[in-house]
Amino acid sequence: MNKIYVVGIGPGAYEKMTIEAEEALKKCDTIIGYTVYIDLVKDHFADKEFLSTPMRKEVERCVMAFEEANKGKTVAMICSGDAGVYGMAGLIYEVGKDYPETEIKVIPGVTAAVSGAAVLGAPLIHDFCLISLSDLLTPWELIEERLRSAAKGDFVCCLYNPSSVKRHDYLMKACDILMEHKSGETVCGIVNNIGRDGEGMKVMSLKELRDTEVDMFTTVFIGNSQTKVIKGKMVTPRGYKNV
Amino acid sequence: MNKIYVVGIGPGAYEKMTIEAEEALKKCDTIIGYTVYIDLVKDHFADKEFLSTPMRKEVERCVMAFEEANKGKTVAMICSGDAGVYGMAGLIYEVGKDYPETEIKVIPGVTAAVSGAAVLGAPLIHDFCLISLSDLLTPWELIEERLRSAAKGDFVCCLYNPSSVKRHDYLMKACDILMEHKSGETVCGIVNNIGRDGEGMKVMSLKELRDTEVDMFTTVFIGNSQTKVIKGKMVTPRGYKNV
To answer: What is the C-alpha to C-alpha distance for residues A102 and A164, in angstroms, rounded to an integer?
Structure first.
């Protein structure tokens, strides 16, 4: 049977991939992905065929994967982080409706929420929400509703896609909504270029975060009411009762 | 400087660990963890010293790690899944206040939300909440508030610790709260023994989930309003607009 692996390669550095992901890539004839992700693994798999489509051509990339599999090749579709968190796994299943003869296997990886948390300390020890601020495919009103719900429930929040050229003030808007229910003193953190050259982190208050410029390679963390700073790290306790 | 690695070893099977996690374990003299996790890695590291404390003795386990590090040993504290999601990373930082001479490094891993999602299909493609139903350290009223907030915001929800001997009806209670704002027909899924012997999954409606018995080795997924079933898999689209 034809087979497509949908592989999360982790945040960037090769060793942040799982052993299972590495084994799947070794088994493949063809590795397909956005060019930036291809560049992260290419040197380790010199004997493979690499194919790519530009950003925003995700449907075309999935069709390409199934067409290659149809030629009898074992194909890996690679994603940064995890393939199932804002990744290609969903689209592969949707496009796969037209290719019933192809088996799909998702190989999980370390998503930016988890790898970024490890850089910041331990912000995600308790219940959290993952919210993307990109309104490309989601109405902004729903994103606002989610931010409000998350703040009301005292969730730790992790924000993906906090900014882009067109959306330079979205993080500021998001912080204003969160501050309807969260204190401006809430402990927050940002991590950029996780697991890559230039990795950096900063811990700050929600008020400070509101006025911080971030780019699209930044992941943002907003603590719950219990989150604190320990030796410069952002740490959420494992509960609300004394440990 | 003394060093403690806090290592997420993934859901169970050895190859679901990252290459970085494996390298950290190789560098260590002593590996500390709950006995179940020790058993998952022991055969691969026969030359290491293994130490353990029983369940619920997590503070003691952290103190043990720092005391061993103080003897000049390089120590790994292992957790299943990721060390930073309901894991030991937070407590290590808290206990570490008394051991300022010890460096802490968190090595992220694949948490059950992510590895379970890969088994079910692609349920976490869009914004989601992670909520633990354990009220050991969190007031049940806050858990209810979070479930309500998550349902109102049309988040995909992933539930950890959905049941235990003492809390056999908590999943039922949680589903009733979610159904205040989510349809009973919402696509849901459960995964048990992720990445271990006896791994299984089932896709069902929220109404059916309400009356399903689960155990403590089960991770539960509740879709958003767009989540659908494709070839028996649980798939959440990447947005609310036509792709």
So the answer is: 36
- Mean pLDDT score of chain B, rounded to an integer? 95
Report pLDDT digits (tens) over B100-120.
999 999 999 999 999 999 999
Model pLDDT, residue A1: 76
Q: Does B237 contact A94 at a Cβ distance shorter than 8 Å?
A: yes
CB atoms within 10 A of CB B139: 12
3-state secondary structure of B159: strand
3-state secondary structure of B228: strand
Q: Within 13 Å, how many C-alpha atoms sit on residue A191's CB side?
A: 27
| Residue A53 in this model has a pLDDT that exceeds 90 | no
Per-residue pLDDT of A10-31, as tens digits, reads: 998 999 999 999 999 999 999 9
Q: What is this model's ipTM?
A: 0.96
Report the distance separating Cα A76 and Cα A60, nearest Å: 15
List the structure tokens of A187. 């402990």
Using the structure block, give the residue that is written with the tokens 């679901």.
Answer: B16
Please give the pLDDT value at position B146.
97
Residues 184-243 of A with CB under 8 A from B: 230-231, 233, 235-241, 243
User: Comparing B15 with A56, which gets the higher pLDDT?
Assistant: B15
Q: Smallest Cα–Cα separation from B69: which of B113, B32, B106?
A: B32
Q: Give CA–CA dist A175/A182, Å, rounded.
A: 9
Please count the residues of chain B: 243
Predicted confidence band of residue A242 (pLDDT cuts 50, 70, 90): low
Residues in A closer than 8 angstroms to B44, CB to CB, are: none
Instruction: Give residue for tokens 């599999």.
Output: A69
Among the partner residues A127, A231, A241, nearest to B131 by beta-carbon distance: A127
- pLDDT band with cut points at 50, 70 and 90 for residue B243: very low
* Beta-strand relationship, A128-132 and B128-132: antiparallel
Determine which of A9, A14, A17, A19 to mutate to test the interface with B (most B C-beta atoms within 10 Å): A19
Residue A200 CB: number of other CB atoms within 10 A?
A: 11
CA distance B153 to A202: 29
Query: Which residue in A62, A155, A187, A222 has the most chain B C-beta atoms within 10 A of its own C-beta, making it the best mutation to test that interface?
Result: A155
Give the Cα separation of A185 and A201 in Å (integer).
18
Cross-strand pairs, B15: none
